[in-house]
Structures are given as structure tokens and as C-alpha cells.
Recover the amino acids of this structure.
């Protein structure tokens, strides 16, 4: 946990990486328009307004002069939560009440997009996003992180990090940011366990060779099976 929270920010701000992160100035309308356009293209037509971006924390990654990714962090004090705006207020309240959650306790990661990168750089991108979320959440007194996507690759990442299912299904095409044929998945998870969950995810999914993960998985299953046999005997 300490490694994740200390080493990755130093890497992102160092000269050793071929890319770097910029937190967009909320008054830089031209930069926000670029983010809006990039997200629209990468998300296959999902819209995000410049008003939303200008009131949120927007981070963008560059490889030289080429933009390669970005994410937005938002809390209800800045904007209405984008994920909850997919529903009517009555439905949103019912969904949160069913899970024992409150909107004012949450922050969200939204509008994520990323170019295809080498695995180690992908890990650093996601680590930077999660560290920013954890720090902002703690500063704002939030207890839960809200995430999800209509994009399969991002849904997978969020599902591994956020154990509470908020909504999984299809929404009418009249909603503000989805199309009728897009599966929407929204998850939540406790903010205080995010560093540990993020470290486990990044190490197992991006930093360990796949064959090593497979061998460890097989070893674990064999060990459990042997232990079970001993106990039964």
C-alpha cells in the first residue's frame, strides 16, 4: 500500500517515463474541448459536457504532444454524480438505499479513456487514477468510490476493484450518456480498502507474468486440496 501511494506519483512526475500527466485548468476551455472530443471518440459516441469537466478534477496523459488517456474525478459538491444521472432521482435514491449508501458519501471516477499502451505503462496509468481518487476522497471526507463503464475493458477493471454491484443492465437510449444497445455496469467500493485492492489488482493483472500467475494459482489450488485431504483424514 505504501509503495503504491508513494512510488507511482514519483514515477508519473519523473523524467524516466515517456509520458506525463497534466491536471487540466478548469478555465482552459480549449483543453477541456480536447478532452471532450477525445472521450467522445474513444467511448463510441458518449457525450460529456464542458460544464461537467470544468467543475471536476480532469487529468490527461500525453506521450510527447500526443494525448494518450485521461480520467475525471467528481464529487457531488462539484457536479451531480454522472453515474446516478442515468436514473431518475427516485430510482437513484432507491438503488442507493438498497445498498445502504448515500450520495454525499461518494466520489466517482468517470469519462475514462486510454490509448493502447505497453502493459507496464497501463499499470502506471491506472495506479495514478486510483491514487488521485483515494487522495481526493480522503480530503473530501468520502467513504465510497463509484465507478463503472459501458466499455468492457474498463468494466473489468472496476469490477475487480469495487465489490458492490449498483446496477448492471441496459438503459433506454433517451438517457444522457448511453445508447440503447450498451450494457451499463456501475459498481461501488469502500475507499479505505482501495489502496490494498489496487495494489493486488495492479500486481496480479499487469506486473506479474501471466504464466507466473497461473503457476501460483495452480499451486494455491493444490495446496488447498492437500490441506483438505489431510484435514479429512
Amino acid at each position: 500500500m505504501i509503495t503504491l501511494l508513494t512510488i507511482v506519483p514519483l514515477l508519473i512526475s519523473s523524467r524516466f517515463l515517456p509520458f506525463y500527466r497534466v491536471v487540466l485548468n478548469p478555465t482552459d476551455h480549449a483543453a477541456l474541448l480536447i478532452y471532450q472530443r477525445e472521450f467522445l471518440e474513444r467511448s463510441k459516441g458518449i457525450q460529456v459536457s464542458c460544464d461537467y469537466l470544468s467543475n471536476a478534477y480532469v487529468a490527461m496523459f500525453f506521450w510527447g504532444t500526443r494525448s494518450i488517456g485521461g480520467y475525471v474525478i467528481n464529487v457531488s459538491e462539484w457536479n451531480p454524480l454522472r453515474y446516478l444521472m442515468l436514473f431518475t432521482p427516485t430510482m437513484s435514491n432507491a438503488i442507493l438505499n438498497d445498498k445502504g449508501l448515500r450520495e454525499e458519501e461518494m466520489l466517482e471516477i468517470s469519462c475514462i479513456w486510454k490509448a493502447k499502451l505497453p502493459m507496464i505503462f497501463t499499470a502506471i496509468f491506472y495506479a495514478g487514477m486510483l491514487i488521485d481518487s483515494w487522495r481526493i476522497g480522503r480530503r473530501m471526507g468520502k467513504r465510497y468510490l463509484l465507478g463503472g463503464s459501458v466499455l468492457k475493458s474498463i468494466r473489468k477493471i472496476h469490477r475487480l476493484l469495487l465489490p458492490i454491484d449498483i446496477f448492471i443492465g441496459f438503459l433506454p437510449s433517451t438517457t444522457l450518456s448511453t445508447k440503447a444497445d450498451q450494457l451499463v455496469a456501475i459498481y461501488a467500493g469502500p475507499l479505505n480498502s482501495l489502496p490494498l485492492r489496487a495494489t493486488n489488482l495492479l500486481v496480479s493483472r499487469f506486473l506479474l507474468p501471466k504464466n507466473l500467475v497461473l503457476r501460483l494459482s495452480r499451486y494455491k489450488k493444490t495446496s488447498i486440496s492437500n490441506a483438505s485431504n489431510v484435514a479429512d483424514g
Summary: Residues 2-208 form a domain with the Aminopeptidase fold (CATH 3.40.630.30). The longest strand covers residues 66-75. The CA atoms of residues 21 and 165 lie 31 Å apart.
